[in-house]
# Entry
Amino acid sequence: MAAESGKIDPMHQFEVAPLGGGFNLGGHEVLFTNSALWMIVAAIALGLFMWGGMRRQLVPGRWQAAVEGFTGFISSMMTQNIGSEGRKFTPYVFSLFMFILFCNLLGMLPLGIVGVHPFTVTSHIAITGVLALISFAIVLVVGFWRHGLHFFSLFVPHGTPLPMVPVIAPIEFVSFMVRPFSLGLRLFVAMTAGHVLLKVLSGFVINGFNAETLWLGSIVSVLSFILMIGISALELLVAGIQAYVFALLTSLYINDAVNLH
Amino acid sequence: MPQIAQLTADNWYLASQLFWLLIVFAGIYVVIGRGMLPKIEATVDARDRKVADDLAAAKAAHAAADNLEESYRQQSDASRAAAQKAVAEAKDKAARDAEKRLAKVDAELAEKLTAAEADVSAARTSAMAEIESVAAEAAGDLVAKLSGVKVAAADAKAAVKAVIHG
# Structure
């Protein structure tokens, strides 16, 4: 951050910087970046968390109960939304939910205090968009695999009067095609907005204490800091909710593909 | 916004993001989603099944205990009734026995009484006879002493008899 110039760029935190050498993949250079690093950190943290819940005791300890709480949460969501066939998709939705949740939460960690710059992987549309496209692709593949061309009846909601079909079908088609964008954008925007807000407020805190009229700047700093505490709590909530929304919508879309209407 | 600026500006950005995302997410899916999750779910399912089984067993044991209690109650009712019947019978029998024995004793006593009465009357008769003979003798002696007349024993007897019997 360009702190020495007195200006703090709230967008700098989203910049992907190469950390190590890469290789060429189809004409594109693939580098090891801070984004990749934090994805791997999230994966390792998730792996450790899950590993702690693998004791398979009849009476679970705290850690096992926490892990089983997460798995039970997702699998009950899948069976509620899709039915007994939903269990087939639980591994995917669970991986999705936990990956997004861990990326969101890791980006919130106050590691800047010890000089490490956390990077929020899910604040990148390139990441969330790809995850949304994977979900969308699963919906398409499952839908056409199970129902063939009958899958197109998804665009005619049950009970639509025949004269309305030519009007309803295009609308349904557009809303269906918009799904991956809305799915990816929602997470990307929520994460970006929260982190920008926090960074702007932290800029106020720093600049307030550096101001020429110290008493006025101090008031601004203290107020901003109090606000930051509240917003950090809110962002932790958002981190969980956005991961949940992503998983929930994915399960609803898969339900459309599995059960049509 | 670097997320979009880098998307178009840096040649390596999208390729790197995609490559590492796919690698990491595939790893998570395979290791955690396919590897660890089913085991954890199996643990949970096994526990749920065990709890359900235990509950069913407890319910069955409860029902068995209820049945046992019911049969015990019936049994005790039956045995109490039997005991009461036996007691009543015994009482009845004892009463009848006592009656019988009493009757027998009564009869014996009556017999003894009549025998005794007979003895008494016989004794009285013989005593009377003896008294008569003694009195006749005494009367004969008295007459002889007083008047010197020898009275025949039969006459004395008749005279005494006439005096005694009025």
